[in-house]
Amino acid sequence: MDKQELETTVSKVLDEMRERPIPLGVSNRHIHLSEDDYARLFPGQPISEKKGLLQPGQFASDQTLTIVGPKGQLKNVRLLGPLRSASQVEISRTDARTLGITAPLRMSGDLAGTPGVRLVSPFAELDLTSGVIVAQRHIHMSPLDALILRVSHGDSVSVAIEGDARRLVFDNVAVRVSPDMCLEMHIDTDEANAAGADNPQVCARLVMP
Ligand SMILES: [Zn+2]
């Protein structure tokens, strides 16, 4: 194979890889805790893994909490591991209405000025002073995925969710590139319901500009 042929073949393979559907993960409401907050809510009990998530090292723990707001509460909300440097509660807009709080749309970790909420475990209660967000929809990917898809960390892209007759194109999907991550789009339950994504045939595709 000469150089020209090789380049054509590589570019064909890349085009095909670009067409592959992006795995879609629907994030139900969940909680991340700092080590200190965890120790207060689950004294003397190490966090334990119930089920691994697609992203390497991330897991759903056996531990659940109740989120209590001024208007209502949400029970059995899953704690995700591992523990983090700051506690963060990710809910949908529908959940925020149930709780009676206003939660801003934010990227994970961008918690300045966010509201708090009360967390209740079987052992203790804790009033978080901040950390409640509605997560900005995003796609995790490795640097290789980013190269193939021709996007960079921090880009905002459009993604078509092809599930059923509620097919939707989501704009403003944040691209998150990290060597620790694999290709997966994360949307919340409100977005999944709006797009008919509770369907085994669902797939997500980048809308090329
Ligand atoms: Zn995510």
Automatic annotation (TrEMBL):
Cellular location of this protein? Bacterial microcompartment
- Which pathway, metabolic or otherwise, does it act in? Polyol metabolism; 1,2-propanediol degradation
> According to the lineage, what is the superkingdom?
Bacteria
Transmembrane intervals: none
Q: What is its EC number?
A: 2.3.1.222
Cofactor(s) listed: Zn(2+)
Please give the InterPro entries that the UniProt record associates with this protein.
PTAC
Which UniProt keywords are listed?
Acyltransferase, Bacterial microcompartment, Metal-binding, Transferase, Zinc
Q: Which Pfam families match?
A: PTAC
Question: Catalyzes what?
Answer: propanoyl-CoA + phosphate = propanoyl phosphate + CoA
Q: What does this protein do?
A: Involved in 1,2-propanediol (1,2-PD) degradation by catalyzing the conversion of propanoyl-CoA to propanoyl-phosphate.
Q: Per the similarity annotation, which family is this?
A: Belongs to the PduL family.
State the name under which the record lists this protein: Phosphate propanoyltransferase
What is the protein's species of origin? Pseudocitrobacter vendiensis
Q: What is the lineage of its organism?
A: Bacteria, Pseudomonadati, Pseudomonadota, Gammaproteobacteria, Enterobacterales
